[in-house]
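In the previous chapter we treated chains in isolation. Here, by contrast, the input contains three separate entities that must be folded as one system, with a combined length of 724 residues.
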Amino acid sequence: MLGDYLPVLILGGLAFAFVVASLFASSLLRPSRPSPAKLAPYECGNEPVRLPKGEKFSVKFYVVAMMFIIFDIETIFLFPWAVSFRKLGLFGLVEMAVFIALVFVAYVYIWMQGGLEWEQAPRPMERTAAEGEQEEELLRAG
Amino acid sequence: MIPAPHLDFLPLLPELIVAGVAVALLVGGALVGRPSQTVLLLLTLAGLIAAAAASAYLWNWDGPGRVLGEMIQADRLAVVSRMILLGVGAFGALYGHHYFARTGVARMEFYPLLLLAVSGMTLLVASADLIVVFLALEILSLALYILVALSFRMASAEASMKYFLLGAFSSAFFLYGLAMAYGAAGTTKIDGIALALSGRTGSQPLALAAVGLLLIGFGFKVSVVPFHMWTPDVYQGAPTSVTAFMAAGTKVAAFTALIRVLDVSFQPLTWDWRPAVWALAAASMVLGSLLAIAQTDLKRLLGYSSIAHAGFILTGLIATDGAGIAAVTFYLVAYSVTVLGAFGTVMLASGGIRERTSFDSFRGLAGRSPMLAGLLTLFLLSLAGIPPTVGFIAKAGVFGSAIRAGFWPLALIGVLASVVGAFFYLRVIVLMYMEEPQAELEPEGAALPGAALALAAGLTLVLGVFPQIILPVLEKAAILRW
Amino acid sequence: MIRLPLVLFFSAVLFSTGVYGVLARRNGVLVLMSIELMLNAVNVNLVAFSQYVRDIGGQVFALFVIAVAAAEVGIGLAIVILIFRNRESINVDEVSLLKW
């Protein structure tokens, strides 16, 4: 039984050996003479600079994206149900009502927690950055 | 008009109760504003007890073996695993109540999330279709990702991110394997796959790919080598109460589902998956034990120990007979009780939100708190598998079933790994009793988690001396009907 | 008529691209997108098999996968926001309090 896998094992070993060998060989053969011009990311133009704080979008958009995805996807269950609504009858209606009720629960929760406010998006961790750094140092030390 | 299908909701009642209470708490909590933590705890425990009563009723279920369009299994293995999981959930709620109250950041979301995780776990052990297995795995994982992040510590958010990225990664592998199984068998029913595969001869590339990918997916969830990288980090970063819950809960749920998938669905391919499981088990036991030696943090140490224990449980899985399944279930009970106790003691001894869990904080614990040191010693001895604790009986059971199935080299590796393991557990015990205290840390006594710890310690000892209390029940449950 | 092996091959390539993305990318959001790619590769697979074995189950399953993927993205974004608010960085590399 296990003998059947021998070719796979050999092939895997060969593939691995090839990768190691070719990387090793090229490191031996290639000349290595770095110069500032060679190390620059582009031949001409400005040096690429990271945008402030690394990200282009405000975190608020992530919150909106999160909410959108959750409520957007529920329609994929509504579509098949709507297509065969007449065939499914009362049973389908009750099932879908339960489903919608559960989504509504999530909606009520988000509303009550202030997730829909644009100005003050909810803060998952209510504390200042200074406290965070302090904590971090403690963790690093300990 | 399609006639309404006949629906038997009774075998799903435990999950319906748990999820229902979770939703009610979520909405109720949001509407009330700042609900009392004690009320939330009591409601959570009430829900768990009601679900336990419902699943105990299902022990004598004489309806069809699978219900709800053959999606839910109504057998005794599901009942037993559910009882374990609901117990684990109750421990988690008690610990969490204490932990979050102490840190002063009590959030009401903890209880609904815990209940949702429990409902995912119990659904997982009762699933009769790979679709349900996948959905249940996701329910429990998604809830756990948030639970891990539910602390003020930065490490907690980071652990959550690691757990999430690797967890989602592994879910994708699991799903790919599932699609392969669907392609190979034309169905996703756990028993349907076995029926489709058993009639065939020759090589079945799709089915083999399915087993491999499903093993990767499960391997991540139960943290076996080489899919273990996240375990120490997440165990260390998560709030200790959550670590206790997830360490016990995910193992019980995922291993029970793995029993169903390997012993039923891919039973026709037993001789193909056994070598893979063999290798995973051996690697987990050896690496888990060896890497644990180098640790200097108790939570990380327990993380590596959980990797080694995943290997021990896989050893029992390799014997596919009823006795092997009973041995695995017993091991799951033993591991749950012990690890809940161990993390509970660590939670009480490590003090405050800072979670000082490095070995230094445990130096000379016996002088400051003989009670906690004694309890931790008991749980560590049980993890090491030293009689008269439950860990010894459990280890003997899984090794015994591996030997019976003719896999004595694996059992030998397991015994050697246990010996190595005993070394680092004993080192912690020596640390607590023989050395002078360094940290000025006041371990705390608390009524509720204290009672839970006493229960865990009692079970560790009683089941270690009288395993026959639950063994007949587990043996009755270990019959897979399909 | 598109033959099954062709679709399976396409889905395997898509899945591998996702795996590569997860392993090579360092931005949390991009890792998340790579995981989505893997899940969608599986969806292609499921629908293809569903057509091949003449069983509607695979398509239903694909719907479930889409919903679960959405939930995963929701939670993933929430965790990214959590980290971002505290660290102002979503690079997986820079998040390294715990040993990898």
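Chain B touches chain C at residues 131, 134-135, 138, 142, 145-146, 149, 154-155, 157-162, 164-165, 168-169, 171-172, 175-176, 178-180, 182-183, 186-188, 229, 232-233, 236-237 (CB under 8 Å). Chain B has a mean pLDDT of 89. Compare these points with the single-chain example from earlier in the chapter.
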